[in-house]
Amino acid sequence: MSLGWKWFTEYQTPYSAHMHGIREILHSRKTDYQQIDIVDSEEYGRMLLLDGKVQSTVRDEYFYHECLVHPAMLSHPKPTEVLILGGGEGGALREVLRHPSVRRAVMVDIDEGVVEASKKFMPELSMGAFEDSRAELVIGDGRKYVEGCREKFDVIIMDLTDPLEGGPGALLYTKEFYELAREAMSSRGIIVTQATSTYYSSYCFAAIHNTMLKVFKNFGGYHVWVPSYDSMWGFTYGALGRDPKRMSAAEVENELERREIKNLRYLDGRIYEKLFVLPKDLMKEVAECRRIATDEEPTFMPI
Ligand code: SAM
Q1: How many whole angstroms from 161 Cα to the centroid of ligand 1?
Q2: Class assignment of domain 2-54?
Q3: Choosing from 37, 60, 154, 159, which is the catalytic residue?
Q4: Overall average pLDDT of the 248-272 stretch
């Protein structure tokens, strides 16, 4: 539906928002799980929105997907079995499959509607990843998949919607879930999750970080500026093996070279090291956080 030119407003909090000028609504559908919209925006090109929250845009999705995927993948010496929970548009899957050691990348998304709409209207995101012989797409709940799986994964990537109250992803940010995930990880396994804005929902980031540290001996957090999110975006991880923040710029460059991963658009060794440098106020909030997200009391984003 062509709008001439209209504004779409995304709220970071009830009192702060980011307005996007959009030319056209390309797809709009309510599934059993969420409202899916794909719009053509002036600034960012095509954008995937879920329940009114920007998920990925063609213009800047690689900031997020490269930073979500490669620290965990590079810090594992030879990731062969990888699990992605969520990741509907295929950007995380695309980045995982860049690593030649990967034999199998299982992607579990609860909503086939997101996968199908992304393939049709935003194929630049998956770039054929779904057709890669190593990719295995499962439509289902990520938590149930982990509860039922007997396999061991070297890397688990949680590319889920925010922990919104009543949202489909809330129970994948809890202590009980991370304990389940730890049982599905190999001896040097690592799990990484998107952990919301380190500005607008820093308390949520701190709670997810604090919850992970209760389950994993090596843990940490990092963040990157994502223009279309209008915020620094956080990630937290738990590692049974090497801690990604211990990798130097030179080691990252060597690993990228050794794995013949040449054309990343955002990340290199210099940027990698800076990801883990969190500002003092955020470090203080994380250090002082005592909140643990549980199934009984999950953590939620403000809206
Ligand atoms: N980059 C986005 C972010 O940081 O908010 C996430 C992108 S991706 C589109 C989020 C995906 O999580 C969606 O495709 C959604 O269907 C999926 N999802 C939400 N809850 C889920 C669950 N319980 N199990 C599996 N997938 C889930």
Answers
A1: 4
A2: mainly beta
A3: 159
A4: 98
